[in-house]
Structure formats: structure tokens, C-alpha cells
């Protein structure tokens, strides 16, 4: 009887906690939306440029998280797809006079095809071997972009200059505000699509492949198709981000896509939290702002410490991983539970 | 007790305060400048693949520190904010916007990298912020018509290659030229400059071009194929490691063309010694600065000043670092421009003075090399001295040449 008495209260407590966390979530969403929409009217052009970059990185991280977090395929080469997207945008805009906004979906599609094709042979490679294959892609891309035969298209090591777009329809916005909104709209669409993707049938299939490929196959999931598709979708996200990146920066060259970019994408999804949609926002904030803080912190050690930003970045990263092994999203996920347990304890006594 | 004198003094002080209070009307367009300091911005690759160049930023900061300790310029201290961009152009754009919009610097000085400077040039041009003495050897910075706010500093690769071209035409009009070049912007600029120097009539003198990739282990096969072409002049447009290989290989296979070599690789310590001092005899280069590893400058006043500066403000390893010497020279040029500005430190006047340098000589430039700029010449150093290697050091010959 005690059992029967206990269970409903426990259940209702859990339900209340769940409802509470849902309310909290909704509140956080509301605050976030107000922040994101209000920012352009209070922040300076420079800060808007930074936050546009954050949104762009968030889109790229989202793609990588679908592949690595949800599907379990490690990629060290997403900088390459980001570069392809960026160059596709720049070449379409400068050589074919395609309007800049129209290049975004085209760049995404080009990257989807590239990612799908790369994903096919990569199917034979698992775990670390796949990581190495994608790493090779990241190493090769800047050099290929530099290749003399492509100079006429890519501008070689001098890169390509792009004009800065202004707000259309005579909207009373500066071009920084307009570009921020463009990134915000793209990011919102991409987040909405990703959230639907991972919550639906396809999402369950790709998570099943990550957790137990044999069981997934037994249940009738076509593993090679889903894995290659996953690669393609993930590259599409990186491509859209790359295109937005070229538009916002207004310049593109092989040096924009060094190896470090690919590595920071991986850092971003781990910091944000693997297999988390919203976590990538925190990952994007990390890769945008922490290198700047590392540079400023190294100034504190005097002028001779100018070589330290890399070291400080490393220390911050290690510290963060130690404190939040499941990333920021992991902490947020467990925090309400921890809090409610903390507050409900006195009642139980 | 208040005497008449104190009253007068107080009056004078308040009058001065009033006057200085009125001054902002004039200083309003002098962004980043106060009575006490001039704020200057810069991006440098302190981290990332090009971090070896970070020493230039350190030398710039150190030089300004020395100037500040001696009282600054017209009483104003120089405050150089040097930020890390990791040699990534998007980061350069971001950091430069921070310098211009948040820090409100007066101008950008000596930011490093060809792609990085190309990425920020439209932004700085649009906002009329001077982009002074960019740290890159590309030829694109001397373009005052389209980019009146951007100015280079060192002789660019094309200038130097065209000096070689002119020298070949003058001394060996029937030469058969073979070119070894690095397959990137540096090598390609060199090839362009050589053709310009030879002129349309003599472009046919180039009978063979052989390129190499930075990732290749040696250039031996390129040297052999250049020899097979029958060339009797060899132009080496290669970075130090490959230049040393090329010099050694030509000697080892018994090929004796006239060898011209880019000044990128003129270091005795890192090129001529590894190639073999005996094997390097007769190599010709064009130079504008003093090589700190060259014994002939040991008692030179300019070199002594450099050594004293390194001892006080930098680390001992920087003494023979050509990048640090570069920073020393470019910072001195900047100080000269700011001195010329006197009390009008508006961006317009800073740019005007940067384009108005007359016969400036610097301690670590070769004797006779003078820095000159004008509204239609944004390539400050154009002169170079031909030098040939005598087995021990470089010895100058002929007059200073202009590219």
C-alpha cells in the first residue's frame, strides 16, 4: 500500500519538475528571442559583426553535430565544406553575377552533393580512420584552392573581394544590421529544420545507427544510405554557413580556411554538448570569443608573452572540459534536476 | 595670502585650460589622438601558421616603447594596440573593426599578411582610415589612385625582379635565362617582374621556367632540367631552404651559369653556409638592408644602434632575425611620419605625411638607400644595391638601382 501511495506522489513530483523545466525552457527561449531580435538596435556595428559570425558558426556546428553528435561519425574536415560553400558563393557572385542571397541555397546544395559523395567511400571507414580521412580533406583544401590551374576562378592566394551588401527595399537598416538579420533568419530556418530532423523518424534512425549499428540494421534501417545522407546534410549546413561567412566578411582566400578552423568546429560541438541542438550556440560563442579573450589575457603577462594566446586557449579548453565534460548543453540538461532535488530535499525529511 | 603673481599665474593656467578646452573643435577629426597619446592599431599572427612573423609586432611595440621613454612625439606617447589574428583573414577583419570602432585608433600600422591586408583594405578605404606600411611584399599596395589610404613599405618582389631583368639586358644582352621559382604568389610576382624588367624586346630571353612546390623535398631535378635547356643565366626565386639546394646543386653538377638570387634568401647564416661558402661564390643578389650576420657591418654605427636596441628591448635571438630588423625599420619610418605631422594629427594629414617622406635614411638600410614617397608613389623603398658573394660576405658593386 505504501508503494501505491508513494508512486503517485513521486510521479506527480516528476511531472511538476518536468512542467517546471518546460516552463523554464520556454522562458529561456523567450529571453533568447528578445535578445536576438533586440540586439541590432543596441549593439555597435562591430559587435553585430561578431554576433553574425556566432550565428554562422552555430549553423556549421549544427551540421557537424548532426554528423558527429547524433550519427557518431567523427569529422575533422568540416572546414573543407565550409570553404567549398564560401568559394561557391564568391565565385557565383563575382563570375556569374548571381545576387548574393541566391547563392546561399546553391552553395548549400553544392556542399550537399560534395558531402554525399565524400560520405560514400567514407562508409568503409569507421571511427578514427574516418577522422583521419576527413582530416586529410581539411589539409588538402587550402592547397587545392591555391592551385594555379584554378586561379581564374579562385583568385589564387590573393583571394576574391566581394562587395558589402546593403539592406534591400530601402529598409532603414545599416548593412551590419541587415547582415545580422540575414544570418539570424538563416540560422532560425536551419535550427528549425535540424530540430525536426532529429526528433522524427530519420533522427531516430541515425541515433540508432550511432548506438548500435547491427540492431539498427536488423530493424530495417539502410545504414549506408543514412550515413551518406547524414554526411550530405551535414555538409549542406557547413556550406550554407560558409556562404554566409563570405558575405559577412566580404573577402575570401585559402588562408581563411586553415586546419585550425576544422579543429575549432570539433571543439565547438564538444564544448556546446554532443547531440544537442541548442548547445551549438554556446559552442559558437566559445570559438568566436575565447580566442580574443586568450589574446587579451596573454597581454596581462607582459609584452614578451605575445606568443601565449594559443597556450591560454588550451588551458581554458582543458578547464572547461574538466568542469563540464558533457558540454554546456549537458550542464543545462542536468541542472534543473539537480536544483529541484536540492530544493525538495527538506520536504522529504 | 594671494599675491598678484599667483593671481596672474592662476589666470594664465585657466586661460590655457580654456584654450585647450576649445581645442577639441580642431581635434575632433583627429580620432584616437589626445594631448597625451596617439592610439595606433595593428593585427599580427601571434598564433597560427605564420607565428614566426609575430616578432615584427614585438619589434614595433619595443621601438615605440623606446620612443616613449625618450618623451614620445611632441609630448604624445605612442600606444600601439597589437592584436592576434592567427593569420586568418576573417579574424583580421573582426580585429580591425574592433580597433577602428571600439578602440578608436588613429590609424592601422604594419598589419601583417597579403590576404589579411587585402581583406581589410575596402573597409579602411570606405572609412578613410590610413592603412600604413603594410607588412607584405606583394605588388598590389602601390595603387594610390584606387586605394589612397593604403601604403606599402619594403621593395616588392616585382621591383626586385625587374632590377635583375634590367641588369641582365645591360650586361648580357644575348643571355639565355632559366628561372627557378616557387609556385605561389611570391614566385609568380617574381616572374612578372623579371619580364617587366627585360622589356617586351627581350622577353624571349627566358628559355625555361621551372617551378617547385613548398612541399617538395628538393629542387635537384628542376636544376638538372634547367641545365639541360642550355641556359647560361639562372634566376633563383626561392625561399631559403630551396635557394641553398639550388646553389649547391648547380655547383655540384658543374654548371656555371650567372646566378641571380632573390633577397628573400640572402642570409649568410641560413643559406650561404648550408649551401657551402665556396660553392656560393659569385651568386648575385639585390639588397636594401644590412645583413646582421655579415661581418662587414660589425663596426657600423647603424648596426651598433640596432644591437643596443636588441640588448635593451628584445631577446638575444632577435639580433639576427631579419623580421625583427624589418620591424625596427618600419617603426622608425612611422615615427618620422608622425613627427612630420606636428600638431595636426587628423587622419587626412597623417596620410598626407605618409605620402610625403623625403630621402629618409635608416640605420639598418644600406648606405644610400633612401625612403621616398609622394602622392603618386606609394612604394616607399624602391632602390636596391646589387651585391655578389665573395665566399665570405656580400660585396656591393655598381650603383644603386631603381626598379
Can you put this structure into words, describing what you see?
Chain A has 349 residues and is an all-alpha fold. Chain A has a domain at 42-258. Chain A contains 14 helices and two strands, in the order ααααααβααααβαααα. Chain A has a two-stranded antiparallel ribbon. Chain A starts with a helix and ends with a helix. Mean pLDDT of chain A is 85; it is low at 1-6. With 403 residues, chain B is an alpha/beta fold. Chain B has two domains: 31-155 and 304-382, 3-Layer(aba) Sandwich (Rossmann fold), CATH 3.40.50; 157-287, Response regulator (Rossmann fold, 3-Layer(aba) Sandwich). Chain B contains 13 helices and eleven strands. Chain B has helices at residues 4-22, 24-27, 54-69, 89-102, 114-126, 157-171, 185-198, 220-228, 240-252, 268-275, 301-313, 322-341, 347-354; strands at 37-44, 77-84, 107-109, 131-132, 177-182, 206-212, 233-237, 258-261, 284-287, 383-389, 394-402. In chain B, strands 6-5-7-8-9-10-11 form a seven-stranded mixed β-sheet, with helices on both faces. In chain B, strands 2-1-3-4 form a four-stranded parallel β-sheet, sandwiched between helices. The radius of gyration of chain B is 24 Å and the shape is globular. The interface between A and B is large, with 37 and 43 residues.
Q: Termini distance of chain A?
A: 20 Å
Number of domains of chain B: 2
Largest sheet composition of chain A:
2 strands, antiparallel
Quaternary organisation? heterodimer
Structure classification of chain B? alpha/beta
Radius of gyration of chain A: 22 Å
